[in-house]
Amino acid sequence: MSEDRLQAPELRGTAGDAWLAQLEQSVGEDGYVSRLGKRHWAAFSDRDTTLLVTFGCQEAGTIPVGQRLAETRGWSHLSLIAEGETFFRDPLVWRYIDRLVDDAFFEDFDRVVFYGAGCGAHAACAFSVAAPGSTVLAVQPVATLAPRVAGWDYRHRAARRSDFTSRYGFAPAMIEGASRAFIVFDPAERLDAMHAALFARPWVDFLRMPYLGGDLERTLGRLGMLDGLIDRAMDGRLTPLAFARMLRSRRTYGPYLTRMMKIARDSGHPQREAMICRSVLARVQAPAFEARLRQIEATLPRVVVAA
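Given the sequence above, the corresponding structure tokens read:
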């Protein structure tokens, strides 16, 4: 396969040169970095018969998602990078994936995991069709932004003008060949939950992260869960039960606890709010929760037990 070496005009200059040098160094002599049009790039590191395929919608000057983990584990890594929120809806990207299929690229690997978050999650699902039998781990995937199907999703205004009706367009249909697919989402985020519902298949597991917000990839990183999720997806140990056990770490995660407190307060349940405070204080030192508990207890009616 002939590859156009990455030298995008947008990346020229000190910052771009530094990023290119770091990226090309990370892929090694047996890998490559390729430009796919104006806003997309591909980077491949050939290390092992285990392959991690990642899709990242990020700034061009950042190292691809999964690169560090793949290097640490000794996995091969194929990274598709988008400058901005493109959802990889570019025929040049589609043709690149087609060439990989024509060259039987994915058949060289014993295990393949597709990973992405946000716009990268849509791509991870959509392009997994190129590697039948692979595993998909998608964080907050968008099924499609085609108005006929998802006209209710008012986000991603620029991307909604892209073509989601032709090749690799409807992500739920593209996971038909996956051995397993895991959809991570927050059911309290209504639009994310609506997209997740479109992926319902017998071989799809929904991994729910209630009340953890709209940037779950960052939250997974802060909870120390992201690497473990990808590890388990790669070796076949990822299950809803394993995920639930990992998610117990949220019980000491400040933003989650604060949000639960707000929900309890807004719903007018001081007893529930007090219960949350006591649970938090039993595990960690939290002056704000301690102060709030004192305030609540001062307003709750005292129960007098008759002798």
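The chain is about 40% helix and 15% strand. Try to locate this feature in the token string yourself.
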